[in-house]
Amino acid sequence: MGSFLSCACLSAVNSDGHRKKLKKSKPWKHPQPITKSDLKQMRDEFWDTAPHYGGKREIWDALRAASEAELSLAQLIVDSAGIIVTSDDLSTCYDERGAKYDLPQYVLSDPVNMVKNE
């Protein structure tokens, strides 16, 4: 339990000793216009396969919950799970054992060229 607490502190404090806050993902553009349902399918496929590439299932679950939550709740989720966030927007994270978790932009925010479902 001690290692979890120290890790939670590491994820919450940056190198200046100030609390590191998650920020909104930067705008991005899909190669072609994409519908909300196509984006949802891409996200579901990522989350279904992500645990097969390493890391812990519970960390992947926490990252999914954080990526789908408002920023303040996302911050609470990653801090509580002991996730070390090295990017401002959850795109690169580590667990307490040093396993790396890379999240693609499309699971973190919607593209600027999303079109309505037909």
Q: How would you explain this protein's 3D organization?
A:
The chain has 118 residues and is mainly α. The protein has one domain: Up-down Bundle (Bacteriocin As-48, Chain A). The protein is 43% helix and 10% strand. It contains 5 helices and 5 strands; from the N terminus they run H-E-H-H-H-E-E-E-H-E. The protein has a 3-stranded antiparallel β-sheet with strand order 2-3-4. A two-stranded parallel ribbon has the order 1-5. Helix 1 runs antiparallel to helix 4. The N terminus is likely disordered.
Count of spatially separate domains: 1
Radius of gyration: 15 Å
- Give the helix/strand class: mainly alpha
Order of helices and strands: HEHHHEEEHE
By DSSP, the count of extended strands is 5
> Termini, distance in Å?
50 Å
CATH top level label: Mainly Alpha
Domain DC-UbP/UBTD2 N-terminal: 19-116
Pfam families: UBD
Protein name: DC-UbP/UBTD2 N-terminal domain-containing protein
Organism: Ceratopteris richardii (Triangle waterfern)
What is the gist of this entry?
By secondary structure, the protein is mostly helical. It contains five helices and five strands, in the order H-E-H-H-H-E-E-E-H-E. It holds the Pfam family UBD.
Secondary structure elements and pairings:
Elements: H1 2-12, E1 34-35, H2 36-49, H3 57-67, H4 71-81, E2 84-85, E3 92-94, E4 100-102, H5 105-108, E5 114-115
Parallel strand pairs: 1-5
Antiparallel strand pairs: 2-3, 3-4
Helix pairs in contact: 1-4, 3-4
